[in-house]
């Protein structure tokens, strides 16, 4: 795993869950993508998915299967013009045979109101990726995510409440608990943000 600064919820004014310590870089990556989306969309939809392997057999320890699923599912989100940004982590408890993943999606809220149909698509794609009969019980998500509406001069649309709720929910993936280091295997990653190009006018 990349080197991390370990923090508590006090660094973020108590927004994060006080039950955990966190990898600061993961929390920062989440906040950067959330802020970027809010800057570019008047509505932002936030949701988290947990992706599990069946526990009745051992699966490969690398991220190949998850990566295949993620690539295909993101293409489906792109097709719907949801303009997804994401951040994912890999975890494994001491009692589980296989690892699992959490992935937060930050979507254009002007294009999506519910995660019901994308959630079903995520299940179908994982089923095909694993080549099993049904992966429905292996993909966990809420049908209703969090809608964040960019505040205006006349109305803040509960912006602070919804923004903080998304940060608290999403920061779960940044907890230090269950993060096992394996040499050469990535344990977290995120979508790329466009680089700001500075133009020298001299």
Brief summary of the model shown:
With 202 residues, the protein is of the alpha+beta class. The chain contains four helices and eight strands. The strands form two sheets. Strands 3, 4, 5, 6, 7 and 8 form a six-stranded antiparallel beta sheet that branches.
Spans of 5+ residues with little confidence (pLDDT < 50)?
Answer: 197-202
Order of helices and strands: EEHEHEEHEEHE
Task: Say how many strands there are.
Answer: 8
Helix content: 25-40%
Determine the structural class based on helices, strands and strand pairing. alpha+beta
Could you tell me how far the N terminus lies from the C terminus, measured between alpha carbons in angstroms? 42 Å
Rough shape? globular
Strand content: 15-25%
What would the average pLDDT be, to the nearest integer? 90
Radius of gyration: 18 Å
Count of alpha and pi helical runs: 4
Q: Strand count, sense and closure of the main sheet? A: 6 strands, antiparallel
């Amino acid at each position: 795993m990349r080197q991390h600064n370990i923090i508590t919820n006090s660094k973020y004014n108590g927004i994060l869950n006080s039950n955990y310590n966190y990898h600061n870089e993961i929390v920062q990556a989440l906040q950067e993508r959330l802020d970027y989306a809010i800057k570019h969309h008047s509505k932002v939809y936030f949701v988290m998915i947990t992706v599990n392997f069946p526990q009745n057999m051992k699966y490969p320890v690398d991220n190949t299967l998850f990566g295949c699923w993620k690539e295909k599912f993101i293409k489906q989100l792109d097709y719907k013009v949801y303009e997804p940004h994401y951040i994912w982590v890999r975890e494994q408890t001491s009692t589980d045979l296989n690892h699992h993943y959490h992935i937060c999606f930050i979507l254009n809220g002007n294009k999506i109101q519910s995660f019901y149909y994308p959630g079903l698509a995520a299940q179908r794609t994982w089923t095909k990726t694993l080549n099993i009969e049904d992966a429905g019980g292996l993909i966990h998500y809420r049908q209703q995510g969090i809608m964040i509406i960019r505040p205006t001069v006349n109305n803040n649309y509960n912006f602070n409440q919804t923004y903080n709720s998304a940060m608290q929910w999403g920061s779960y993936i940044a907890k230090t608990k269950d993060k096992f280091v394996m040499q050469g295997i990535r344990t977290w990653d995120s979508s790329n943000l466009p680089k700001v190009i500075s133009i020298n006018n001299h």
